[in-house]
Amino acid sequence: MPVSRGTKQTNSKIPKLSNKPGSTENVRSEKESSQTKRSPSSPQGAPKKRSAFGDITNASKIQTVQPKQKEAGKTLKKTQKSTDVTTNNQTNLKKSVDKIPTKESPPAELEQKKEVQKSEEKKTNLLSKEKPVEIPAIDDVDKENLDDPCLSAEYAKDIFDYLKEREEKFVIPNYMDKQSDLNREMRAILVDWMIEVQENFELNHETLYLAVKLVDHFLTETVCMRETLQLIGSSAMLISSKFEERCPPCVDDFMYICDDAYKREELIAMEMNILKTLNFDISIPIAYRFLRRYAKCARVSMETLTLARYICELTLQELDFVPERASHLAAACLLLAVSMKGLGGWTPTLEYYTGYTAEELVGLVKRLNFLITYPDDKLKAVRNKYSHKVFFEVAKLKPLDMLKLQEIISEYVEKLP
């Protein structure tokens, strides 16, 4: 067993007693040397006096020397004093030896530590033999924002789960069959104009998406003529601006953007008509909010998010994508953008936060890829907008081939557990 820290070999600590009788100088030197060497400074702080008596074997040597000194010094009183000193040293030595742990009998605490170490080693050996269980890691994207009270990170997932539940209430069917004087091309031209209004007024994208939703919900309930279609679009932009913007444009601004085609009273009357038709329930879930949330969960760059926004904004002009749920559409746009950038597949983190698997998004992703591959040449607002350097010129990116997209998506589906 190794010597404990702070102890030294006792052969150099315990002085050797001389066999000559009457050697008082040796006895005094022994006493002085023992006193000076019994209190060495400890590296851990206080001096350890017991470190001088670490070796028990010297005690037997002192006991054998003691009778010779007594026989040789019967006539001398000084030698009797020396024998008293040696006996005192022996008694002190025995007391200290009883307290100091020996090499042959370690203390109980050290034995307990050894047993604990052995048990831990056995556990680690057993664990190393077992096969590791692969658990899909889910990234906690809201953990880093818990210190900011403005973000409400602890309620973020609950908020978006609630928005997904509200989507069931705002599902829009294909309403164009009810409109006798309107068609899908007219609606696409109106949305293209609304995109230009959003860009000219520098409004939020949430304002644009909500305005398009208000138009679709109003046309689902009311039959309108083509002369009032632009009035419906401008009134919907005014309502959503009041709902989303910090400083919304006024009525005169929308009258100006319509080239004074409508009067002020007509614009206000249409605003009231839309609100009454929708029962003032205009907090409609939009795809743009879900897209920003899912992009944060995927931790993609701003360029990849802008590409997904470009794809999602193209769907606003297409009537075929109106019945799609906002969360489903946002997840498919992000998956297509990630595939075009070659940034990996649909991770368990995205599946957890979106609630959609890769298999549920395959059909919609193919439709979106077809949309960006063959865009409508008459509708240029979205492509001109996202061809600017501010938006990383994502509209100029080459879309994926259908066969290559099928291979990429099939790999995503196979990798998922």
User: What is the fold named in CATH at topology level of the largest domain?
Assistant: Cyclin A, domain 1
| Low-pLDDT windows of residues | 1-79, 99-105, 126-135
Distance, first to last CA: 53 Å
Please report the total strand number as a whole number.
0
Oligomer: single chain
The CATH class name of the largest domain reads Mainly Alpha
Average pLDDT, to the nearest integer? 79
Q: What is the tally of helical segments? A: 17
Taken from the alpha-carbon principal axes, the silhouette is elongated
The percent range for strand residues is under 5%
Query: Could you say how many structural domains there are in total?
Result: 3
- Sketch the topology as an H/E string, one letter per element: HHHHHHHHHHHHHHHHH
The CATH architecture of the largest domain is Orthogonal Bundle
- Proportion of residues in helical segments: 55-70%
Q: Largest sheet, described in full?
A: none
Properties at a glance:
single chain; 417 residues; mainly alpha; Cyclin A, domain 1; 17 helices; 0% strand; elongated; disordered N terminus
Task: Give a structural overview.
- The protein has 17 helices and no strands.
- It has helices spanning 24-37, 57-72, 77-99, 108-129, 156-166, 184-200, 205-221, 229-244, 251-257, 264-277, 287-298, 302-314, 326-341, 348-354, 358-373, 381-385, 402-415.
- α6 (184-200) runs antiparallel to α7 (205-221).
- Residues 1-79, 99-105 and 126-135 have low confidence and may be disordered.
